[in-house]
Amino acid sequence: MKIIGGPASQLLASRVARELGITPTLCDFNCFPDGEAYTRIQDEHIKDVTIIQSTTTDSDLVSLLQMIDACGDAFIINVVIPYMGYARQDKKFKTGEPISARAVARTINADRVFTVNIHEKNVLDHFSTPASDLDASKLLGSHIGSLNLTDTLIVAPDSGAISLAKSAATGLGVDCDYLEKTRISGDTVSIKTKDLDVTGRDVVLIDDMIATGGTMAESIRLLRQQGAKDVYLACVHPVLARNAVIRLFNAGVRDIFATDTIEKAQSCVSVAPLIADAIRLL
Ligand code: R5P
Questions:
Q1: pLDDT category of residue 195 using cuts at 50, 70 and 90
Q2: Could you read off the pLDDT of 91-110 as tens digits, one per residue?
Q3: Which domain holds residue 173?
Q4: Which of 57, 128, 146, 252 is 20 to 30 Å from the Cα of 204, by its Cα?
Q5: CB of 208 sitting under 6 A from ligand 1
Q6: Are residues 147 and 247 in the same domain?
Q7: Phi and psi, residue 155, nearest 5°
Q8: Which residue has a Cα nearest atom 3 of ligand 1?
């Protein structure tokens, strides 16, 4: 079994390879003078391979397609897409739109596909090969446990993220809740934790991803107004687009931590053990 890490997942692929006791196969990633991507795998004897590459940008997707094609003579090609871009466009929101997640999934020609906390599980059905989603919530939970917080409360910013919050909290034996929007009148809504009081507690807001930071910035402000001690952010995928980090610190976050599905300064929790376990079971 060989491990190949794409340009977006060099650190994660190295960590997975180390978990498995394999030296990762080197690739050249370069650009032609016109800007087109050039990829070359420095190994001519690929038989059984796992390619690891998040597709945060369009060029990451092109690199992934090039690596898969370059391994075309292998007997087995597994593809791990730790963060799959376009997964949020899993339906037509307006007529005339594509289902972009489906369009992307259809380009992946492999024997087996893995994702990590994909935004909607139904996207997995669009791959032409068996696809499974790995869950990083317990790894985030362990990290939360190592922070020595006061009376920890894990909170999902909406009901969509409650299963992530529950799973992270269960392993730790701490409380979890979610922010609920209640309409008070035609133009007034109140947003607060559904069941539990946050006063004096360290709160960890958790979500699958932070993109512009808008959802979390609003949630941080509300929790601080409601008397939370410190507010931390945890997410699987730190997209953190544009000025998201500054927005979140301006909103009063104490710290942000995430996994290495996207390799950022905040990616202090590695999903490598999760991916290595999945590969071992193949
Ligand atoms: C949405 O359903 C996701 O779970 C996240 O809540 C969302 O993508 C976060 O986006 P933003 O950071 O731009 O508010």
A1: confident
A2: 999 999 999 999 999 999 99
A3: 137-260
A4: 57
A5: yes
A6: yes
A7: -125, 130
A8: 209
- Ligand 1 atom index nearest CA of 161: 4
Whether residue 171 sits in one domain with residue 127: no
Mutate to test the pocket of ligand 1, among 162, 179, 215 (most ligand atoms within 8 A of CB): 215
Report which ligand 1 atom has the smallest distance to the Cα of 207: 4
* Structural contact between residues 125 and 91, judged by C-beta atoms closer than 8 angstroms: no
Number of domains in the chain: 2
- Tens of pLDDT, residue by residue over 146-178, are 999 999 999 999 988 999 999 999 989 999 999
Say yes or no: 146 and 199 in one domain.
yes
Give the confidence band of 189 by pLDDT, cuts at 50, 70, 90.
low
Whole-angstrom Cα distance, residue 236 to residue 22?
A: 25
Indicate which residue's Cα is closest to atom 4 of ligand 1.
Answer: 208
Determine the distance separating the centroid of ligand 1 and the alpha carbon of 27, expressed in angstroms.
33
The pLDDT > 90 percentage for the chain reads 90
Q: Is 179 in the same domain as 127?
A: no
Q: Is ligand 1 within 6 A of the CB of residue 116?
A: no
pTM of the model: 0.95
Question: Does 237 map to a domain?
Answer: yes
The answer as to whether 265 is a domain residue is no
Beta carbon of 215 within 6 Å of any ligand 1 atom: yes
| CATH number of the domain to which 72 belongs | 3.40.50.2020
